[in-house]
Amino acid sequence: MLKRVASGCCRLILVASLPVFAQSSSAQTSAPTAPPQNYPSQSSSAQSSSGQTSAAKPSPAQTSAAMQSQSSNQSGANQSGTWIQLFNGKDLSGWKHVGPGYMTVEDGLIHTHGGMGLLYWTAGKLSNCVLRVVFRMRDENDNSGVFIRIPVEPREEWMPVHYGYEVQIDNHPEKSNEDEYHSTGMLYSLTKPLAKAWKPGPEWNTMDITLDGPHTMVVLNGVKVTDYREGDPVPAKKFDFEPQHGMRPLEGYIGLQNHSDNDVVFFKEVSIKPLSSPMSGK
Questions:
Q1: Closest among 113, 132, 141 to 219, alpha carbons compared
Q2: What is the pLDDT of residue 177?
Q3: What domain range includes position 213?
Q4: In sequence order, what are the beta bridge partners of 224?
Q5: In what order do the strands lie in the sheet with 253-258?
Q6: What are phi and psi of 68, to 5 degrees?
Q7: CATH of the domain at 220
Q8: How far apart, in whole angstroms, are the C-alpha atoms of residue 262 and residue 221?
Q9: 40 domain residue, yes or no
Q10: In this structure, is residue 266 part of a structural domain?
Q11: Is 79 exposed, middle or buried (0-12, 13-18, 19+ CB in 10 A)?
C-alpha cells in the first residue's frame, strides 16, 4: 500500500489532520462516512505530479451505462449479468488522477508510474455490484491497490486511505515488515486472508470485489479471500500509515493506486456487474 512512501513531511501532516477513530481490536462502531467539512471542494481538474491532466469527464455513454446500472441494481431488476466496462482499453476517458505520479495507457493496459497517487472513476458512486479488476505485476511482486467506498470525489491521495477501503495488491508484505493482514485481496490492515490465491508477476490476477450494502467480499482468482461486514472486529493499528478505523459508506467512488517508482502494475480490465438480488438485508 503506502508504507514506502509515507515519509514525506506534507503527507504526514495531512494524515495527522484527520480525526482519529477507535484503534482497538473491536467492532468498528464509529461512522466516518464523510471526510472533514473543510475537505477541499471540487477543482476544475486534477493533475498528476508531472503536470499532465487526466481526462476530466467520462463520455456520455460511459456515464449513462454506469448510472443506469446503479438504478437497475438498486431496484433488483437487472438480471442480465452483463459486465459494464469502465476502462475502454484506449485512454483514460472517465478517469481522473490525483496525487503524485500518473497513469498512462500502453498496449491496451493502464500502466502505473511513480506515486503515491490514485486514479479514480469520475462517473459516480458504486454500490450493490461486483467490481472486477484484472491486473498483473511487472516484477515477481509489486505494490498497488483497488480503492472502494470512497465517500466523495478525491482531491488528493490520502482521504481515500482513511475514509474508504483499499483492497490490497502486495503478495509479500513480510518484505516490508508487515503481516498477512496487508496481503493481496485484504481490506488493507483490517482483514485476515481466508485463503492464499494470488499469482506472482507477471501472471494475470482476477479480483472480483462484491459491494452488497454493508457487506464486502473479495474473490481472487476464483477463491474467496475476504468476507467482511461493516462493524466486524478489526485488529489494532500497527503502523501510523494504516487507515483510520470506522464504518465506511454503503456506496462510494472507486480507484486504482500507483504506489511508487519501484512498483509497476498493469490493469487490463475494470468492469462492474450489478447484483440482481442484493443479499445484504437477508
A1: 132
A2: 86
A3: 3-17+58-274
A4: 219
A5: 95-98, 117-121, 253-258, 144-150, 165-169
A6: -65, -35
A7: 2.60.120.560
A8: 25
A9: no
A10: yes
A11: exposed
What's the rounded Cα separation, in Å, for the pair 252 and 29? 19
Q: Do the Cβ atoms of 99 and 118 come closer than 8 Å?
A: yes
User: How many domains is the chain partitioned into structurally?
Assistant: 1
- In the chain, which stretches have pLDDT less than 70? 1-34, 36-37, 40-80, 278-282
Residues 134 and 187: their CA atoms lie apart, in Å, by: 17
Residue 227, judged by CB atoms within 10 A of its CB (0-12, 13-18, 19+), counts as middle
Residue 261 forms part of a structural domain: yes
Which amino acid appears at position 69 of this protein?
Answer: S
24 assigned to some structural domain: no
Using alpha carbons only, give the angle 213, 215, 220 rounded to the nearest 5 degrees: 125
| pLDDT of the residue at 68 | 52
DSSP SS3 for 218: strand
pLDDT of residue 35: 74
Residues 6+ apart with CB under 8 A from 13: none
Strand partners, 27: 233
Phi, psi angle pair for 230, to nearest 5°: -50, 130
- For residue range 1-30, list pLDDT tens digits in order: 554 443 333 332 233 333 323 333 445 545
Q: Quick one: which of 138, 132, 96 has its CA closest to 211?
A: 132
d(CA 282, CA 270): 28
